[in-house]
Amino acid sequence: MGVRSLTQAEAEVRSNALVVERYDVAVDLTDLLNNSWVRCESMIRFRCRLPGSGSFVDCAAEVESAVLNGVPLPTAVDGRIALADLAEDNVLVVCSRVDTASGVQGMHKAIDPADGRVYAYTDFTPDYARYVWACFDQPDLKAPHAFTVTAPADWLVLSNSGDPRVEAIDSGRRWSFPATPPLATYNTVINAGPYYEIRRDGAGHDLGLFARQSLAPVLERDATELFTLTTQGLEFFAERFGMPFPQHKYDQVFTPEFPGAMENFGCVTWMDWFLRRSTPTRAEWDTFSRYLLHELAHQWFGNIVTMRWWDDLWLNEAFAEFASNWAAVRATSYTDAWAAHLAGEKLKAYFVDQGPTTHPIRQPVPDVAAAEATFDAITYPKGASALQQLMTYVGEDTFATGLTAYFAKHAWGNTTLQDLIDALAASSGRDLDAWRIGWLETAGTDRLALERDVLVAKGPGGVARPHVLGIGAYRRRADRLERVALQQVEVSGERTQLELPADADLYLVNDEDLTFASARPDQAFRNGFFGDAARLPTAISRGVAVTMAWDMLLNDEATAAEAVQCLTGVLAVETSASVIEPYLNLAVEAADLWSPAADRDGLLGSVAGACRRLAGDPSYRKAALRGFARTAADLEQVGWLQSEAGEDLDLQWRALARKAQLGSPTAAEAEALLARDPDPEAWVSRLQVRAATPDPAEKQAVWQSLVTERAVPIASVHSVAALFWSAGQDDFLHPYAEAYLELVPTLHQGGVMPATTFTRSLFPLVAIDDSFLARAEALATGATPVVRTNLLDRCNRLRRMLRSRL
Question: Apex CA 353: angle with CA 350 and CA 358, to 5°?
């Protein structure tokens, strides 16, 4: 059975014709203990504004029966059930079932390898609810949802609304949940299984954390920090948005095999990879704090107020990304959030926005299949950076006043971009149409450069966007740079006159990182710039310099050696633990993948030396040793790392992977380590060691598990694949570059997150040449949108790497 993708035109027709009043959905999970089927009954009450007309309801599950106003309906075609001769008031009842073993989207069954316990979850973004039960699966047909779930007796069942009525029945227990507020279908959820639960009060709410039983000790370890962050976020957003979170209960469920994180109203679902088996580094906590606040911000931006159609997906994702950094800096201990954002996500956005897959933050989305390709670095971090620039442009308090008015007016409804712009224009008294067109409806990255005392701004099409940004002037004080002036300028043309000291030793464009633009130093300071970055006084000023150096590497304006010089210099003085690990990752990548073969070992040695020096600081030790595990030059250095790792099993696994890359036998050590590692996914760590091994049989076995069987948890696919594609192992890897090309037509299977992950992570960065790129780009033209976008992005990155390696 084919399944058609809903078009925007179809959605508009259906939205104009129908008003959905309520869903009552009964779900039976009792078969999942021993089998794979889930049965559902969806009762939809809805009105038709044009009685006598027809429409359709979405249902891509196996339909057992469908009855409209007492009349049986014909079989579903292309995932749709036709609805003819609608009354003014209608009741539709559809009984369906879904086989979780078939790999379809929407409902998933997971088995914990540690103890065999079974867990189940739904995941409905963007339009996967229709794969489980009948619904009008589009964001602007919001309605209350009341769920009744039958599950095994020892299971907990979690959904959007709290305080379910639970009763014992012959097959287990029945959980009856109160109706939710009006929600889009993709914001609803059912999580079920024998979960371990922790609850506390915070910000006037009943907060819950859940994990599979085998991860209970990890959840206990992290619970206090998770509850603290959630409480801080709830308080900050309630004040800044002028609206407290409107439900008493707020749950967060760490679920095995979940592909990412999802902001379901009142019940956020996380992949339980976020519960780090090894004690998290500061950078990992920084990242997770922003993810947690991102999903929390979605309760307002996405759930309470929802975009009308997927062309305004940025209203959800970019705003949640921006708000997570805003809240982290203002309300939590993670005050370097913007510096961490710059070191990680924003760098990715700069790259994508200067490549073949660039697009406006807001773009036409003709159907939902096209929407799947917009979950990318432009929608998220570039969109977040644009909103940071907008807040700078109008002022923080004015920005918050506009948001308060926006939520008050549109709560539980749907909006477009213009609704938000109108609210912010009203609060600021500024005409924001030029800002909207330049920032949200124009693709590409502006270039900002200094020519003595003039800032030159050029846009992708010639004219730059409006910017408010800072230019810092620095003078040397001993071995440091001290800022002696900061000029904030509003750019509205190609050339902006500056009033800065003429005798500065360094001028920093976009100081404080207030805007999104590709910046360059004055040519007079270019050669000394890579060393001077380390002399800058703050994490954010050093981050702006690192970003400039990295962007120059990507655009063939700097060498890998210059990028490594900049990064290792900054690492030697960096005071923010939040950016140490991202910078180490960049330094390793520059040395390992961007450098000419003749320079590679020397640059890796420079990074290894930086790691070894950093390891002496307890605040950076774990991150530094992780970096050393990727750069150790010989078995003697690996031995030193194993000694330093002690009982840290994560570091021991990383050391073994490096030992394998260097060609030393590791099987006996790996089996011994596997036997004493309590992590339920320790077998994945063992697979990583095998992936790193330069042996044809091992490569074949890893490819079988990773690709053919798709047995590796989605969160670990990248780490296994990165070791599989180890530099210097070209003789073993050439066949798999060809195998990747053969996979392209099937990479879309499994939904947005698996398609994105497999397309990007399996893409070879070694053992290929320009002819491979040409064939990959040709295949991309016929691929689904999400695969095409990610494949072209990887080809662009590799083409730049190959150029840099010359």
Answer: 165
Fold of 200-442: Neutral Protease; domain 2 (1.10.390)
Task: For CA atoms 663, 664, 665, 669, give the dihedral sign.
Answer: negative
Does a cis peptide bond (omega within 30 degrees of 0) precede residue 217?
no
More confident residue, 65 or 434: 65
What pLDDT is attached to residue 238? 98
- DSSP calls for 663-706: T---HHHHHHHHHH---TTHHHHHHHHHHHS--HHHHHHHHIII
DSSP-assigned letters across all residues of 563-622: HHHHHHHHHHH---HHHHHHHHHHHHHHHHHSS-HHHHHHHHHHHHHHHHHHTTSTTTHH
Contact status, residue 581 vs residue 623, Cβ threshold 8 Å: yes
Q: Which long-range contacts (C-beta less than 8 Å, at least 24 apart) are formed by 7-13?
A: 7/366, 7/367, 8/309, 8/310, 8/311, 8/365, 8/366, 8/367, 11/138, 11/140, 11/309, 12/309
According to the model, what pLDDT value does residue 162 have? Answer: 85
Q: Which residue has the higher pLDDT, 247 or 363?
A: 247
Residue-wise pLDDT for 586-634, tens only, equals 999 999 999 999 999 999 999 999 999 999 999 999 999 999 999 999 9
Alpha-carbon dihedral angle through residues 557, 562, 567, 569, given to the nearest 10 degrees:
-140
What's the pLDDT band for 526 if we cut at 50, 70, 90? confident
**pLDDT above 70 as % of the chain:** 100
Residue 463 in this model has a pLDDT that exceeds 60: yes
| Fold classification of 1-194 (topology level) | Immunoglobulin-like (2.60.40)
Strand segments, DSSP code E, in 100-232 are 106-111, 118-123, 145-151, 156-159, 165-169, 172-176, 190-193, 196-202, 205-211
pLDDT of residue 315: 84
pTM of the model: 0.94
Across-strand partners of 314?
none
Question: In whole angstroms, what separates CA 205 from the centre of its chain?
Answer: 27
Mean pLDDT of the chain: 95
Mean pLDDT along residues 117-134:
97
pLDDT score of 492: 80
Q: Report how far residue 721's alpha carbon sits from residue 729's, in angstroms, rounded to the nearest whole number.
A: 13
Sheet with 447-451, strands from edge to edge, namely 495-497, 454-458, 447-451, 518-520
**Distance set, CA 550 to CA 350, 355, 561, 583 (Å):** 10, 15, 11, 11
Q: What is the domain partition of the chain in residue ranges?
A: 1-194, 200-442, 446-515+517-631
Q: What gap in Å lies between CA 272 and CA 305, rounded to an integer? A: 28
How far is the C-alpha of 746 from the C-alpha of 414, rounded, in Å?
35
> What is the distance between the alpha carbons of residues 681 and 277, in angstroms, rounded to a whole number?
9
Rounded alpha-carbon distances, angstroms, from residue 373 to 336, 477, 787: 30, 49, 8
Token digits of residue 267: 């019940």
Structure confidence at residue 392 as a pLDDT band (50, 70, 90): very high
The encoded tokens of residue 262 equal 């999802």
Beta-carbon contacts of residue 478 (< 8 Å; ≥ 6 apart): none
Nearest Cα residue to 218 out of 145, 273, 159, 139 = 273
355: confidence class by pLDDT, cuts 50, 70, 90:
very high
Query: In the 3-class helix/strand/coil scheme, how is 311-333 assigned residue by residue?
Result: HHHHHHHHHHHHHHHHHHHHHCC
Q: How many CB atoms lie within 10 A of CB 348?
A: 16
The whole-number pLDDT of residue 382 equals 95
Asked if 319 and 406 count as a contact pair (C-beta separation under 8 A), the reply is no
User: Cβ of 259: how many Cβ atoms within 10 Å?
Assistant: 22
- 604, amino acid identity: L
pLDDT number for residue 622:
96
The total number of residues shown for the chain amounts to 806
Same CATH topology for 1-194 and 200-442? no
Residue 514 DSSP SS3: coil
Percent of the chain with pLDDT strictly greater than 90:
93
